[in-house]
Each structure stands twice: as structure tokens, then as C-alpha cells.
Amino acid sequence: MQSINVKRLAELRRGAEIELIDVRMPTEYREVHAECARNVPLESLDPQRVMAERNGQGTQPLYVICRGGTRSSQACQRFIDAGHENVVNVEGGTLAWDKAGLPVVRGKKSLSLQQQMQITAGTLTVLGVVLAQLVHPSFIALSGFIGAGLIFAGISGYCPMSSMIARMPWNQCGDGGCEGSCSA
Predict the structure, then answer these.
(1) pLDDT tens for each residue of 18-44
(2) Active site residue 76
(3) Which residues, other chains included, contact 170 with Cβ-Cβ below 8 Å and sequence gap of 6+?
């Protein structure tokens, strides 16, 4: 998989138009994103559709960014698996972009997906214990189910609960704040 650091990408951007997609959740993107990125959430990423919408830039590299580099690596792998080799992961993600002093757009702050996941998992675990004590002992299975889901997520890198939370209405960007332009 190809990768590029943020400073080198900024240099390329000065000389030509680039296409940069940010694969974070819309709310994360709205909070802070590289000035020239457009949002294509990993949860709904369709490599064929993205490549078809490139407006004649299909021969140019497609740069992929996220918060720190993990989700963008996953997205790049999806493109590669779909037969699109000219994708480049942005090392260090938006955190590195911002830290390097490169132009960003800042907007409304919100809870990160990780925080929402932790709150949901913790609440359901405590609820299972409380219901097991007050209603019926079999409610302890709820806590066990949540724990097993967290183990699965840690091993596989896929968390069904995070996927569901990412699709919630409050995690969508319905105010038009999810587009960007990468003109030099």
C-alpha cells in the first residue's frame, strides 16, 4: 500500500489539484478536516462509486485520510481489493495535518465514535448487572454479550456496535458541511 506524509502531500497540492477523501464519520469530519478533503465515510465507502465520480481524474492518485491513519489504511485496502491500485494513505491523518499547521476547517464539536461506543457499552453492561440483580438473573447475559462483542471487535478490528452508532442521525452531516475542494 502506498503512503505519503502530510508535508509531501501539501507540496503536491501547491503544484496541482489533488483529490483527498476523509473516511471518518461526518461528525468527526465536521469538527476538523483538511481544507481540501471531502467526506466519504468508511461505513458507506463504495470504491467503485468513488472512482466513477472522479470527474476524469481516474489516472491521478486518490489520497485517503482519517484521524490518525488506521481507517484510511482500511479504506485503501478496500480500493485495492476492488482493483484500484492508485490510492495513497495519508500517514498520521488529520492529526498530523493539523499539527503540521496545514489549512483545516473547524466546525461544530461532537463526541467521537470511540466515546459514544464507550458510553453505550458501559451503559449496557451496567444495565445488565442491575437488571440481573433486580429483575431476573438471566439479564447478566446482556453484560456477557457486550463483553464478547468488545473482544470480537478487538480481535477482528470490526465493531458492529460502532457501525450502528455511526449510522445514527446525530452522527450524520445534514447541514451541507461535509464537502471540500482541493484546488491549488
Answers:
(1) 999 999 988 889 899 999 999 999 988
(2) no
(3) 27, 110
Tens of pLDDT, residues 35-85: 999 999 998 899 999 999 886 666 799 999 999 999 999 999 999 999 999
Position 165 in a domain: yes
User: 66: part of which helix (H) or strand (E)?
Assistant: none
Q: Are residues 145 and 82 in the same domain?
A: no
Contact criterion met (CB below 8 Å) for 61 and 18: yes
Q: Which residues contact 166 (CB under 8 A, 6 or more apart)?
A: 25, 41, 43, 113
Q: Say what the pTM is.
A: 0.71
Count of alpha carbons within 13 Å of 15, Cβ hemisphere only?
4
Same domain, 70 and 156: no
Please indicate, yes or no, whether residues 91 and 43 belong to a single structural domain of this protein.
Answer: yes
Q: Which of 36, 66, 173, 182 is catalytic?
A: 66
The domain in which residue 60 lies consists of: 2-110
Which residues, at least 6 apart from 181, have a Cβ–Cβ distance to it below 8 Å?
Answer: 36, 38
